[in-house]
Structures
1.
Amino acid sequence: MTITIEREHGLRQHADEQFGLECPYCNVYSHVSAQAVPNVTALLRDKPKHVGLVYQCDACNAPIFLRFAVKEYGTDSVELFQNFVELERPKERFPFSYLPKQTEILFREALSCYTHNSFNAFASMCRRSAMSAFDAIGTDGKLRAFDEVMEAQHIAEIDDDSFEPIKNVLFGAGNEDDLPLLNRAQAGVLLEVMKDMFYQCFVRRGKLSRAIKVRRFFVQEASKGMRPSA
Ligand SMILES: [Zn+2]
């Protein structure tokens, strides 16, 4: 894909080279269309090393800010490298309201680290989120969570060697200096395991008890308005 901004024609990007990415607003993998292009005259005069363009998500119409490095300045045009930096990355979602308050704060920060590709900061925050969750569950919290994680390993068919660093992050007894270094793939597995563990320990229970409360409420309301049939 060649992207050029020309004095005469503005942004030149071939239609068949339209590109897509995961939108940070709607989380849909969608095509994007150029929405705002910098002034060419100013670019040719100032010759910045990087250029920002605003695209529009075709799925939800939200603006997506991308930064491109400049490949070459011509007399009347600017050619950009095709690689770009997304200034806003899609956020990882989770039903945070079901988590204990402290766990929620820590896990939100963990997911923010993951979103910004800081995988070892993510691992450290996962350790803190997990410890806070074990405390919140109460007696045997760590043991219960451990059983859930073992179940997840079994369901996902992850071998012991690959799973060892994940277990170490969540259940290791040492201080943070002992945490293993994680790469992108391992961080991805840790992310899914964390979500599943929190889902099993908090979200499932919360959703179920909320749903049952609602059912009981409607039964009680209905019976108030009813008369004995016989
Ligand atoms: Zn979108």
2.
Amino acid sequence: MKTKLFCFELPFLTCAAVLASLQISVIQAEPQSGYGELIFEDHFERTESQEEKDEPGNEWTTSSETTAGGRKQVDLRDGALHMETAENANHAVSTRHAFAFTDGTIGMRFKLDNDGDVLRLNYTDLGLKTVHAGHLFNADFSLKGVAFEDLKTGVMNLEIREARKAGTLTPEQSAALKTKAVSFSHPIEKGVWHDLLVHVDGDKITAEVDGETVGSFQSEGIAHPTKTLLRLLVPGEATIDDIRIWRRK
Ligand SMILES: [Ca+2]
Ligand SMILES: [Ca+2]
């Protein structure tokens, strides 16, 4: 199967020649290489220079200065990234990294230690001015299952956001909003590591947990061409490791 994935989109003879010359590479290739070009990975095998403030490194940024008075909410711990929203913070802790794809896959290991914990993957384009804070869509992982929401054409669209605040949503807008979010039941064990993969292709998003497809959702906001920032939003507590991002388009 690895050779098939490795030869993705190559003509057969070229593929055979490449394989003949690169046998060792093929054997060592990541099994997930069929997801496209690996454009980012982080295994968090490092430590901070201090333990008072966020210092995730590797070009990650966090929201702790603005939402938690600079208290430490993001901690490199035992070779993984632990995130926990501080008491009295005014927003869920946000840990962000730039990337760029139209279609691609984001994968990581994650661990949730408490009932109610959620790890949200928030896909963002800060250059998009028709939405609040660049919000495109979410994929949420909890102990109960997976949820998706199209924010670009849903609650983060500025027109809709203002109308919701003012209480002036039209019946058409209310009906449309109901089609922007879905959830899928898939209970998982608390306090142990799980694997997630989120595939985005065109207007479709699909999530796998521990190798099993949990759910898919199609919505126009997912097709936004320039996804440029990943925010990991954690209202409670979550730990991640071995994050990888592949680009197909
Ligand atoms: Ca630490
Ligand atoms: Ca690690």
